[in-house]
Amino acid sequence: MSFVQLRYQYRVYPSPGQRESLARAFGCARVVFNDALAARRAAFTAGRSYVSDAELSTRFTAAKRTPERVWLSEVSAVVLQQALADLNTAYRNFFHSVTGKRKGPKIALPRFRSRKDNRQSIRFTRNARFSITEGGKLRLPKIGDVRVAWSRELPSQPSSVTVIKDAAGRYFASFVVDVDEQPLPPVEAEVGIDLGLTTFAVLSNGKRIESARFLRHAERTLRRAQKNLSRKQNGSNNRTRVRVKVARAHAKVADTRRDWAHKHTTAIVREIQAIYVEDLCVIALARTRLAKSVHDAGWSMFIRLLEEKAVRAGRYFAKVDRFYPSSQICAVCGHRDGAKPLHVRVWTCPRCGVVLDRDLNAATNILAAGRAERLNACGGTVSPVATAAGTSR
After folding, report:
1. In angstroms, rounded to a whole number, what is the distance separating the alpha carbons of residues 258 and 263?
2. What 3-state DSSP class applies to 166?
3. By C-alpha distance, which of 169, 174, 175 is closest to 119?
4. Out of 35, 307, 359, 373, which one is annotated catalytic?
5. Which of 62, 107, 303, 389 has the most CB atoms around its CB within 10 Å?
6. At CB < 8 A and 24+ separation, what contacts does 369-373 make?
7. Residue 217 contacts by C-beta under 8 Å, 6 or more apart in sequence?
C-alpha cells in the first residue's frame, strides 16, 4: 500500500450568521499573522536574535488576556496557531530559497496580509475537533454546522480542513485526506505531446486536442463587466457589488479551464503508459505579444496535472529539453532543416521528400527524444533519430 495526501474540495454554504463568524475568524488570523511578522521584523531591525516559533506562540497566548487583543478569544485557538504556522512556513521557504535548498524561482520575504484582500482562508486541524455530522454538515468550532455540497465521498478521515473564501464571494472546504493509490494496469502505449496555441496538443499517435480558448470566448462579457466596474466610485456599495460580478465572471473561466484540463489529463494517463512533453518556458512566452493566448491556454496547469496523475497512476512521465529542435528535425530521416516561421504548418523534407505536419512531426520527435533519454538513464545507448524512424507512422 502507498498512501498519499490529497486535497478534496467542496462548495459550502454558510448561513448569514456563520458568514459573520467566518469573517471574524479570517480577521483574527490575519491580525495574528501580521503581529507575528511585525515582531520578527522589529527584532531583525533592532539587531536582536530571531524570534522563535515557541516564543511567538507564548506571546500571543498572553496577548489574548490583554484588553487590546481580548477579542482573539472569540475564535478557535487552532485557527490562530495555524496562522503562526503559515508564517513559519513562509520564512522557511524564504530561507531555503536563499540558501539554494529550494528549487525554482526565488521566494521573497513574507508580506503583511491586507484586510482589503478579497481572498481569505483559515485552517482547522484535528486538534480543533472539527467533524462531519450524520446529516452531512461540516461542524466547525465556534462557527457551527455548515452545509456542504458533497460531490463525492471522502476516502478517509480528513487530517485538516481549510475554509476558503474566494474573490467571487464563494466558500469552499478543502480537506486533506490519505488516499491509498493503486497503480493502473500497465499498457504498451507511449506518446510524445507537442503543445501549441492553434491546436492545444498534438499526440504522436495522431490524436489532437483543440484549443478551447475559454478567455477569448468570455472576453466580451468580461470587457462589459470591467467597464461597468470602472464607472463606479471607489468605496461605494455599487462598486463592491460589481466587483463581485467581475470576480465571478473570471472564476467561471478559471473553473471551466481547470475542469477541461482535468478531463483531458485523466484520459491521457488512463490510456498511455509513458508520456513525454516538451519543457516549455511559459514565463518567457508570457512576456511576448502572445501573452494573452499563452495564459489562456494554461500549459503549466496541464503539464502539472499530467505529471501528478502519471506518478499516482504508476505511469512514466518525463520532460524533453526545451532547446531540443523538435520542429526542425524530420522524424523519418533525421535531417535538420532549420527554424521555420509559425505560419508554416506543413513542410517537405529536402532529403527524403516526405511531407510533414509540423505539430505531428514535433510530437514524434519528442517521443523519440524522451525514449532515448529514458534508455540512456537506464544504461543503454540509443539515437533519438533512429528511434523516431523506427516508430514512424
Report:
1. 9
2. coil
3. 169
4. 359
5. 303
6. 369/192, 369/276, 369/320, 369/321, 369/324, 369/326, 370/192, 370/274, 370/276, 370/318, 370/320, 371/190, 371/274, 371/276, 373/318, 373/320
7. none
The secondary element (H helix, E strand) that includes residue 283 is helix 282-285
* Residue matched to cell numbers 529542435: 325
Highest mean pLDDT among 234-238, 259-263, 331-335: 259-263
Active site residue 35: no
Alpha-carbon span 249 to 359, nearest angstrom: 33
pLDDT band, residue 379 (cuts 50/70/90): low
pLDDT at 389 over 60: no
Rounded to an integer, what distance in angstroms lies between the CA atom of residue 320 and that of residue 249? 36
Q: What is the average pLDDT score of the chain?
A: 91
Question: In this model, does residue 382 exceed pLDDT 50?
Answer: no
The percent of residues above 70 in pLDDT, for the chain, comes to: 95
> What pLDDT band is residue 388 in, cutting at 50, 70 and 90?
very low
* Given 194, 296, 307, 373, the catalytic residue: 194
Q: Among 136-145, 315-324, 344-353, where is mean pLDDT lowest?
A: 344-353
Known catalytic residue: 166?
no
* Spatial separation of the C-alpha atoms in residues 268 and 264, rounded to whole Å: 6
Q: Do the beta carbons of residue 146 and residue 13 sit within 8 Å?
A: yes
Is 327 exposed, middle or buried (CB count within 10 Å of its CB: 0-12, 13-18, 19+)? buried
Cβ-in-10-Å burial (0-12, 13-18, 19+) of 68 comes to exposed
Q: Which of 35, 86, 190, 278 is catalytic?
A: 278
Q: How many Cβ atoms from other residues are within 10 Å of residue 388's Cβ?
A: 26
Q: Is the pLDDT of residue 182 over 50?
A: yes
pLDDT in tens, 23-48: 999 999 999 999 999 999 999 999 99
pLDDT value of position 209: 96
State the Cα–Cα distance between residues 45 and 47, nearest whole angstrom: 5
Query: Active-site residue 194, yes or no?
Result: yes
Cross-strand pairs, 277: 193, 319
